[in-house]
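Lab notes, practical 5.
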Amino acid sequence: MAIQPDTREVFIQGITHEGRTFRPSDWAERLAGVMSQFRPGGTRPGSHLSYSPWCIPTTLNGVKCVVVHRDLQAHEPMAWDFVLNFAKDNNLQIAEACLLPDAPTPKG
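Output from the prediction step:
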């Protein structure tokens, strides 16, 4: 799958193209953990204890996903290729999108 050049975020979804749930159940956290060293400003002491802002595990509509930001490609093209090839090799669905922040909760 060719990612459009203006896409800011790619969602790797834990669903195969055949509709099966990808296993193991913690795959998103594992992938994001491997990518934790790739971050703005580079690796720092203790940075392995948090996810990179460029590769974040989440759950959307009950489906495990990893949100991969395009800045990862600019910082480390091989890391970008690694996550996209992970999705391709495991036949995972990919969506191009932009994760929007939650709407503020109305007061009153």
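Observations recorded by the TA: The chain has three helices and four strands. The two ends are 47 Å apart (CA to CA).
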